[in-house]
Amino acid sequence: MEELEREHKSHRMGMHTEQLAGRTQQVFFSPAEGENLLYPGAFDVDFNKRAEFDAGEMDSKAINLKIRELMSQGYGTIVVKNPLAKHSVGVGILNRLQLYFEGSLGYFGVGLIDGPNVRIKGRVGWSCAENMLAGTVVVEKNAGSCFGAAIRGGDLVCMGDVGSRTGIDQKGGTIIVGGRTGAFSGFMMQRGRMVILGDAGKNLGDSMYDGTIYVGGEIESLGVDAVPDEMTDLDIAWLERKLALYGLKAPNGTAKMRKIVAGKQLWNYDNLEPSEKKIVL
Amino acid sequence: MCGIAGIIHRGATGDIGGEMTSMLLSLKHRGPDSTGFAIYGPARSGELVMRFKVAEQEDLASGFKIHHQIKERRAEVDRRIAEMGGEIVEREEPTEYAGRYWLRFDGDLRRFADFIEDIEGVEILSIGDGLELIKDLGDAGRVAEQYRLRGFNGTHAIGHTRMATESDVDIRSAHPYWAYPFRDISVVHNGQLTNYWRNRRELEHRGHRFMSNCDSELIAVYLADRREQGLELEDAMRASIEELDGVFTYLVATSDSLGMAKDVMAAKPMVLYESDEIIALASEEVAIRSIFPREIDTFDPYEGEVRVWKS
Q: Which of A223, A201, A225 is CA-nearest to residue A215?
């Protein structure tokens, strides 16, 4: 029973990864191996132990140090009030943690994280969750450009609209946008999934190497080597399950969403030497 | 990098000097070299307000002679205003090298500006019914203190914190720029224009003058030129998105409007807050938060977007 509870808990925490193909599209971590998921020196925190503090008069470094100090004291649920759009807040957390921001974050918020579940009640600036490795980040309002740049794992969700270059250089994980995204979203995407429930700006998926982009609204234009692909039952099942986790729905139903993948026709996919290429072309 | 900010009160006035100072202080890390304000205060009937400088701040370190030259230049400005048929109603000297005049003048503003600026070291920063353009070296706190900007009442303002990249650290290259010779039009910009020289040559052939080599000045002159050709402000801004190449976000203000334009790549940031009473924009949300400590909804305008608001 305890084992089952831990398993449910780990699922709720988003401690799972996605496989891009195959019958089972998600792989859950074994809760029994939870200890192996912790970094050496990570703090042993208790989610039932809650702390909150007012960040209104603190600078970014002081806020980050305060979060760390609370984690070292075993607090597993931390509420940060009045972050006032300060930059680089909540970064580098390599720990299990329930972290709540009651307000907005500036640039580079919750970047380089590995493990925490973050909920931001306001908006985030540019490059939210850059290089995130695992965990979940939910933004309740809008986000700036470069949302989820180079993320490698975890779920990054924005309930509202996001700026341009969403998921630039994405290497894994899932980015979900409840509204619209700007130009060059998925630029040089390499792996992972991006779900845009609203419209997508021009040059979507430009020069993407791999990965999948789903769009519920209109696409202004596709980028170089980004091509439409057919939605499969697996895609639909995955989308419905994933969106349900965050209480989101595709406006016209998941079956009508469009799927964009890499055409893999760019020069980096061929084996020709430049001199040979000249002859072929 | 540079930081830009704008604020407009709808159907009301406020302490725009204090508000813009707070916003620009929050953006200080984006550019500490110089700070500039374009503030739109109440117009005086039949009078123009002119901001100008007769020397650069750094000139004061060049020897004792400059102090005498500044006095001579000020006297020459007064003499030429009189010669052009203008009348100085009121005058202030916020710094040794800066001036603020209220004038009566109803002649050709381009000829007037050209004649005054023909004096060595003299540059008109702005002329208008309500526009006052103030810029100097240092952060917003220092400039606001020097020019007593806190408590300055008005409808709207734009501002700039500059990180000099391709031109000098001096007042001449600081932002905002007045859209010479159009009264009450000013511009601030964050970015880089890559077809600067081609556009500059074209505009110079049409008789426009440039006081610096800063690409931001080109946007002001470009908009002035398109306005001269009869385009409405918003149409001129839309044309700029097509004709100016590079990465840029800029703000433009007129006597009763505030506008923003973002290039097609959306490579330069802008965050926007809009309500029935006020619109505030800045390179970073932290600047907007400096005047709205309560929770508000903000968003990023998209690539190629142009917006204009009236006061």
A: A201
In contact, B272 and B298? CB cutoff 8 Å = yes
**Domain assignment of residue A155, yes or no:** no
Residues B132, B49 contacting (CB under 8 angstroms): yes
Section B250-255 average pLDDT: 95
Alpha-carbon gap, residue A78 to B51, rounded angstroms: 52
Q: Quote the tokens at residue B44.
A: 């005086």
> CB–CB of A106 and B300 under 8 A?
no
A172 touches chain B (CB under 8 A): no
Total H helices, total E strands in chain B: 8, 15
Which has the closest alpha carbon to B41: B198, B181, B170, B152? B152
Are B310 and B255 in contact, with CB atoms under 8 Å apart?
no
A262 bridge partner residues: A226
- Amino acid sitting at position B12: A
CATH number belonging to domain B44-128: 3.30.70.1110
Question: Which of B271, B289, B293 is closest, CB to CB, to A144?
Answer: B271
Name the pTM for this structure: 0.85
Calculate the CA dihedral of residues A137, A140, A146, A150 and round it to 10 degrees: 10
Asked if B265 lies within 8 A of A183 by C-beta distance, the reply is yes
Domain containing A252 equals 166-281
Q: Is A86 on the interface with B (CB under 8 A)?
A: yes
User: Can you give the pLDDT at residue A8?
Assistant: 67
